Amino acid sequence: MLKKLLATQNTWTTLPVRLALAALFIAHGGQKMFGWFGGPGLSATMQGFQQYLGIPAWLAVLAGVTEFFGGLGVLVGLLTRVAATGLSVVMLVAMFKVHWANGFFLNWDGKPNVGHGIEFNVVVLGLTLALVIAGGGAASLDRKLSQ
Q: Helix 119-134 crosses helix 80-94 at what angle (to 10 degrees)?
């Protein structure tokens, strides 16, 4: 079962996808969990999820853990499909709970009190789904462990 989960295509094309997603999700997870990069930290993240999104605190913790540790998994290519699936779910929640009301496009003009649409989330969701399909690729721990 584990060997099947780790199986991946012998391709290098997943490496830039993994590196880009890892940078994005480790940074955002670090903001939520640890207050890194000017983020709110865990208690403020839980409060914000509850107050503004109606999402229970335990799901805010799960989102932060998924982003940070899923990002680390994607970075090294360990359990890539599992990590990418979790990150896909995070993107879907962000799309429908936060950004859907703002339409498709990002708020490029920086209009006050206008959030971003789902444009960025669609791109990130596509990249996470590519990893769900392909796995970690040639330069991954998944590949090394499945041989």
A: 160
Give a three-class secondary structure readout of the chain. Answer: CHHHHHCCCCCCCHHHHHHHHHHHHHHHHHHHHHCHHHCCHHHHHHHHHHHHHCCCHHHHHHHHHHHHHHHHHHHHCCCHHHHHHHHHHHHHHHHHHHHHHHCCCCCCCCCCCCCCCCHHHHHHHHHHHHHHHHCCCCCCHHHHHHC
Q: How confident is the model at residue 101 (pLDDT cuts 50, 70, 90)?
A: very high
For 58-87, what is each residue's pLDDT tens digit? Answer: 999 999 999 999 999 999 999 999 999 999
- 10's CB contacts (< 8 A; 6+ apart) are 137, 138, 143
Tally of CA atoms within 13 A in the half-sphere of 39 that contains its CB:
20
One-letter amino acid for residue 23 of the chain: A
State what percent of residues in the chain have pLDDT above 90.
Answer: 95
pLDDT for the residue numbered 131? 97
